[in-house]
């Protein structure tokens, strides 16, 4: 279990009531933001301290890994310059009966503050630039001790409120978003009818897109399965992030079995340009092993074309669940 600190001044009410965290992927100028990047390393069971108006008002338990999701409509004008598609983590929050003000206990917490990406200044004041950041174990234990029994109970509860307790599909809101994109494609008179159908079918890794990927790829890179019936064409740059040209570009795809497609699509694996397999630090290793992904040695899946490497770079930067610090 890891510990996290989230500043929720703008979005506290919506995120607490809705049971989630949401952040953009990048700053308004498209620069990386480490406090958004940390969303990519949250895992089920992690503990999250919610900091609002200088106090820790709630504690959450992560119920999911990070996944792509549109900006929540309930945010309204908050973060008007934020990206449309960002990162979301489902969280079970418990509001504290006895919230604490960390500044009142800064003499205890100061020696435990991390040297980098700290949620608090040496004075005990919060940092407005922080959204989500990791809390060192010793600092987290001190905070739990300061809050008292209710924090100890929440921390000990773990994932007892597991994902089974919330039947909501993680990608339901993204599905709605993609259907909006499909509708706009369907209604665009500039796109020939046959092209519209090809663009929409490409979202499911089939049709013309799969045919073009098969001109480059002959098998699943990880499992070696070669029968096309059992393979999907998986986008490296997600369909909803791609231009219409990129959605049908064969070099924007790999042939993968359904389980490997799931791992690649959700960012649990990726590939380096020379072909080495990358496993996300939040991936569940026993599950990957059962899916046929070796994690105890270096796995090289072969070389990629220059076009494929271009799209793989996007996958590593924007899909793989690994924070770039």
Please characterize this protein's 3D structure.
This protein is an alpha+beta fold and 325 residues long. The chain is globular and about 65 Å long. The strands form three sheets. Strands 1, 2, 3, 4, 5, 6 and 7 form a seven-stranded mixed sheet that branches. Helix 7 packs across helix 8. The chain has twelve helices and eleven strands. About 2% of the residues have low confidence. Strand 10 and strand 11 form a beta hairpin. The chain folds into two domains: 166 residues, Roll (ph1033 like fold); 146 residues, no CATH class. Helix content is 30%, strand content 19%.
Quick recap:
The chain is α+β, with helices and mostly antiparallel strands and 325 residues long. Helices cover 30% and strands 19% of the residues.
* Global Rg: 21 Å
CATH topology group of the largest domain: ph1033 like fold
Mean pLDDT over the residues? 91
Largest sheet: 7 strands, mixed
Tally of discrete structural domains: 2
Strand content: 15-25%
How far apart, in Å, are the first and last alpha carbons?
20 Å
Question: Key terms for this structure?
Answer:
single chain, 325 residues, alpha+beta, ph1033 like fold, seven-stranded mixed beta sheet
Chain-wise SSE layout:
Elements: E1 3-7, H1 12-18, E2 20-24, H2 34-37, E3 47-52, E4 55-62, E5 67-70, E6 85-100, H3 106-109, E7 132-135, H4 137-147, H5 149-157, H6 172-186, H7 193-202, H8 207-214, E8 232-235, H9 244-247, E9 253-256, H10 258-265, E10 269-271, E11 277-279, H11 285-290, H12 306-318
Parallel strand pairs: 1-3
Antiparallel strand pairs: 1-7, 2-6, 3-4, 4-6, 5-6, 8-9, 10-11
Helix pairs in contact: 7-8
């Amino acid at each position: 279990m890891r510990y996290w600190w989230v500043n929720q001044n703008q979005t506290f009410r919506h995120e607490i009531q809705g049971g989630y965290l949401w952040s953009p992927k990048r700053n308004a100028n498209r620069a990386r933001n480490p406090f958004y990047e940390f969303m990519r390393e949250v895992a089920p069971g992690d503990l999250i301290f919610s900091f609002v108006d200088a106090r820790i008002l709630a504690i959450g338990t992560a119920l999911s890994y990070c996944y792509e999701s549109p900006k929540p409509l309930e945010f309204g004008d908050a973060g008007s310059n934020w990206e449309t598609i960002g990162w979301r983590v489902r969280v079970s929050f418990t509001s504290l009966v006895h919230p604490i003000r960390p500044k009142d206990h800064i003499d205890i917490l100061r020696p435990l503050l991390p040297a980098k990406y700290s949620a608090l200044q040496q004075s005990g004041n919060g940092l407005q630039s922080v959204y989500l950041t990791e809390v060192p174990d010793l600092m987290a234990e001190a905070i739990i001790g300061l809050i008292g029994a209710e924090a100890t109970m929440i921390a000990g509860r773990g994932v007892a409120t597991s994902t089974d307790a919330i039947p909501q599909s993680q990608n339901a809101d993204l599905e709605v978003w993609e259907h909006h994109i499909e509708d706009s494609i369907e209604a665009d008179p500039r796109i020939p009818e046959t092209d519209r159908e090809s663009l929409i079918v490409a979202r499911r890794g089939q049709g013309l897109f799969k045919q073009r990927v098969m001109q480059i790829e002959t098998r699943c890179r990880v499992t070696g399965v070669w029968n096309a019936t059992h393979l999907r064409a998986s986008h490296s740059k997600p369909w909803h992030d791609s231009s219409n040209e990129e959605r049908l570009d064969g070099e924007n795809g790999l042939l993968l079995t359904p389980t490997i497609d799931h791992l690649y699509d959700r960012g649990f694996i990726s590939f380096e340009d020379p072909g080495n397999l990358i496993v996300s630090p939040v991936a569940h290793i026993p599950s990957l092993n059962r899916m046929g992904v070796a994690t105890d040695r270096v796995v090289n899946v072969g070389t990629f074309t220059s076009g494929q490497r271009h799209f793989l770079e996007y996958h590593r930067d924007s899909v793989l669940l690994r924070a770039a610090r």
